[in-house]
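Support request, priority: normal
Reporter: lab tech (M.K.)
Component: structure prediction queue

Hi team, I submitted a job for Membrane protein from Thauera aromatica K172 yesterday, and the status page still shows it as pending. I've pasted the exact input below so you can check whether something in the sequence is tripping the parser. The sequence length should be 366 residues. Please let me know if I need to resubmit or if it's stuck on your end.
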Amino acid sequence: MTAPASASLARTLAPAYALLLVYACLHPLAGWRDSGLPLFDYLWAPWPKYFIVEDFLFNILGYLPLGFLLAAALPARWHAASRAASATLIAALLSLGLETTQNFLPTRIASNLDLGGNIAGALIGALAGVRWGGAVFAPHGRLQRWRAHTLIGGRTGETGMVLLGLWLLGQFTASNLLFTSGDLRSLLGIPAPLPFSAERFIAFDTALTASSLLAVGLFTRCLTRGPNPLPVLLVLALGVGAKTLATWSFFDPGTPFAWLTPGARHGLVIGLALLLPCLLLSRLAQHALAGTSLLVATALVNLIPENPYLPYERQLAGFSNFLNFHGLTRLVDSLWPFFALAYLSALGLWRGEHLGGDASRHKRRL
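Reply from support: The job had stalled in the queue. We restarted it manually and it finished. Here are the results:
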């Protein structure tokens, strides 16, 4: 018997989110060593001398979605209390394992306060998942109705939704330019290949913003049914909102519109002017342009000169969990276009677009 749609989607999202938490909690995954201290001593540590409210709230918020997804993924026939308790226990065991593993990382400190915040967040999320998870993920719930009407179905649609969610997560990388992804240069510590000049940087920034906007817009269009452009515009608006929130939250003092560089302004205009007519093209043309735009944007982001005058060069806000989150979003943002290109290739093969128009008519239409 196949799993219901609610369990299927939630069971896809829950482990994906758990993996993101693993990376965030163990970032930067370097310098492993044995401190020689008992592994579980931190559980009985006294109240810390300095208590940062923002860090504690971040721990709660980080595990709240996990509790929600786990509760929604568990069988609906279970009693509500059993689902909430099981989801909280699974999240608590994950948090306990990660906090204990932090004993082996010199840049991390295992904390019973962090563990308590994580468990509290998971419990809140689990209770919410028991109460509203069905309405969100059930076959006739709001999310499923919207998805069936708007997006392609099956595992293909679910994977596309996860990739769009990861792209939005990557936009919370405050130190990156608007809509950019695929920056392997900064991830690997490779210097910029071109020297900086204002004219060169603005030209690269304009082309990068325009090609990134076109790539994400057409990628979203490849997942949707019908000609309605609202899902595409919604994803782009959410990306702008995520970048604005990131630059406001993660820099001290906050600068919410630091991303709105001259190149970004020009690129937004050019990108939208290119995207809107492309939404009227055939599926095959949109698919090809989406992949091409991803390749162009990825090449540009690794060629653009470093700009020492951007406010991104300032110190990030010093809360430890903010820095961990920044490391997570940076990794996701750097790898996203490569997963997106692989997905587009698989989607094109499944649709039969490589066979041409005549053969494609015999394939399942989306």
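Residues 151-360 form one domain. Residues 357-366 have pLDDT under 50 and may be disordered. Let us know if anything else looks off. Ticket resolved.
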